[in-house]
Write a structure and sequence with these properties.
Chain lengths: 424, 424
């Protein structure tokens, strides 16, 4: 199968068409953080659930204290003491009748009959000592009018309110509000299951590689990136370039609990031993294969197929190309799997702090690093042969990817460039 | 103990003084992502580890093909076939002598004698079929001079290079480069162990709360925020306002494997049942307590102490105050525990898209949300009484915190405000 030429956007559209959102499952609040709502978040309880004190003080009738002055204070008889959560169901709740008050702590239900809380600082009591009401405290003296300081039932949120639509990321804050409105779980898209396969007979899985071998690094890169993007990941490093070895790991990934997405690196070019491309374009288990020559540097050779109906995104083995391919094609696919509404890479504008050349006719994707002033320059060590951004050393410091359009053949210092900010 | 007045910066400095970086441990690469280097990342191997082909093609001697032209091509005898990782130690590696070439695939070691790779596209072969060299292929015809296309040993990274200093966040990219330079693990600060305790007799841990009770939401907020900030978290929701209950959870947190930090919410004000403040300022197990009236809205009452030598940051129970306190005080402490060099909340400037009032003399911390044009406005539903940003509903949509200086009493539309961007 010969490659078809494609733009970056065309190839991304193909990858996105191969995946859809994972099923919606009910997940306990604590585990739902970082996932995406598969249905709206609807309040099951009012917030607050009952009228309660906004301050420590005394629950009163506004009418009783309306005329209080320093010279002519209002003295109210204490008929009870309530604090948050201390309502004793075995005894009658205190009721505030004319001329009486109830000592009340922040968050406690406002007693029947009362419609305001006078903060303790505005009474002759001044402040409370720790502990229950002293038997000697039989009255409270108020020397100014008081009103308010009551948080009314449902003044913040009401049963049935839709707080967030499907597609919303569950942050720690969203989870806590869900708890406030009476929910113990949330409907979210289950985490995408991803299998990362790093191929190459030259790869050593761990430890010191032998002659002609290099350490596998792509499986770490792709697995950690997918995990940071919210996926559950199985990492298969250093799979040799044989049909049998590759078939075995693909079959395992598409087995009893099939992955939602398989990501391979290496073996997609036109070399005689490029077994990923060979197998995905010839095996009976593989369907719908596309071999693409994508207008992107690095990362031109790309393969997209399905293995026993599981989508396979096959990216090149060069580490910078694999990384760029993840950000341009795989991360958007993971966003769609997670149920996120916006899946395209979001870009911002930056000023180029140095210049470099770019290949005409291809989108150049350059690992860059922000300088102290906010401009960006290619990451990695420069040498006489180029920016250095094609080297793995660039990956250490890069904090963004500059996207240089195909019609640009040179970036000059001071030019505005689009960049994609990188996370962890 | 009466409160001491403190600015936000003063209280943050006190909290930071109570914690230090966790011990440095050696962690396998795959688990190190998201942690912070406790020592420099030093290359243990060259990258590349040996001279290798940058393209699929033929390894040649540059001198042999220097004079090749379309009319007077250079025909070289094939003496071998190498691909990445297929070096057979039992047979002698092919050597390129004058007049010969070796078929070579990307990543394979360049044979002795050769100093360049001629890409297959530039030879009469045109392209390779998948599989080993055909016995009929005994020569290759080159019609133009060829040089280069060799990646030289150590041209990217050299043994002993320091790639990243202590204090660097281990991203997926850093972990993959560490693999490339021969490392299987990294020295990182162990994850901070954090215990989150939500106090309040009015709190119901799960399910439908009874009369006078409200759901515990702060433990979800604080636990998930701490987890997102890189901590291992134990969550203790809905601890009642009794000395015995609080002592028990604090003792557990400071037990056999003590936490690095305890975060409590609720019970820090001057109410008669504010047991956190009471216990941390009176118990024998508690030392160095400070009760602070911090110049911040919300989140004025704060307590800092140690319980059996474990630092305790005690924040107010109001959900928005607890959230703001986490971002202003707890997150910086977690950064320090993780070994991050920069711990203060990083702010950026934004334009206010609407106006609101701010209390003089206190730093106002306002949950805000970005509008489509990039300006920010208070999150949450507005009502007649204020911006709505003090309500839990504001937490659903807030994506930043605006920090309004104490000398500002009104923010007008169009004003520049400092904001702290929020993560998950």
């Amino acid at each position: 199968m010969q490659p078809v030429s494609r733009s970056v956007d065309e190839h991304r559209a193909s990858v996105l068409a191969a995946v859809g959102p994972t099923p919606v499952v009910d997940v306990p609040l604590e585990d739902s953080v970082g996932m995406v709502l598969g249905g709206p978040l609807v309040a099951r309880a009012d917030v607050p659930p009952f009228d309660n004190a906004a301050m420590d003080g005394y629950a009163v009738r506004t009418a009783d204290v309306a005329d209080a002055t320093p010279e002519d204070p209002c003295v109210l008889r204490l008929v009870g003491d309530v604090s948050a959560g201390r309502t004793d169901p075995s005894s009658a709740a205190p009721v505030v009748t004319p001329g009486t008050a109830v000592r009340i702590m922040t968050g406690a239900p406002v007693p029947d009959g009362a419609d305001a809380v006078v903060p303790v600082e505005r009474t002759d009591t001044g402040r409370f000592e720790h502990g229950p009401l002293d038997g000697a405290d039989t009255s409270v003296t108020v020397r100014s009018p008081g009103r308010g300081h009551v948080r009314h039932r449902a003044e913040d949120l009401t049963v049935g309110d839709t707080l967030a639509p499907a597609g919303t990321l569950v942050t720690s804050r969203v989870a806590s509000v869900a708890a406030s409105v009476g929910l113990a779980s949330l409907p979210v898209h289950r985490r995408p299951r991803v299998v990362v396969i790093s191929t190459g007979s030259e790869l050593a899985a761990d430890g010191a590689p032998g002659p002609g071998r290099i350490p596998d690094s792509n499986s770490y890169l792709l697995a950690a990136s997918a995990r940071n993007a919210g996926a559950e990941v199985v990492r298969r490093g250093a799979v040799p370039d044989t049909v049998d070895a590759l078939r075995a790991v693909l079959d395992a990934a598409a087995g009893a609990t099939p992955a939602d997405l398989i990501i391979t690196s290496g073996g997609v070019s036109a070399g005689a031993m490029d077994v990923v491309r060979h197998l995905l374009t010839t095996a009976d288990e593989a369907t719908g294969a596309t071999v693409a020559a994508v207008g992107m540097q690095p990362g031109k050779p790309q393969v997209l197929a399905s293995w026993r109906e599981v989508p396979v995104v096959a990216v090149p083995g060069n580490p910078v190309a694999a990384f760029v391919s993840f950000e341009m094609f795989v991360r958007p696919a993971l966003r769609r799997l997670r149920g996120e509404p916006d899946v395209a890479p979001p870009t911002v504008e930056r000023v180029a702090g140095s210049g470099w050349s770019s290949p005409p006719g291809r989108l150049q994707v350059v690992p860059v690093v922000h300088e102290p002033g906010g401009a960006v320059r290619p990451a990695g060590r420069r040498d006489g042969r180029g920016s250095g951004a094609h080297r793995v050393s660039a990956l250490v410091t890069a904090d963004a990817l500059a996207l240089i359009d195909p019609d640009v053949d040179e970036v000059c210092p001071g030019d505005t460039v689009r960049v994609l900010l990188l996370g962890g």
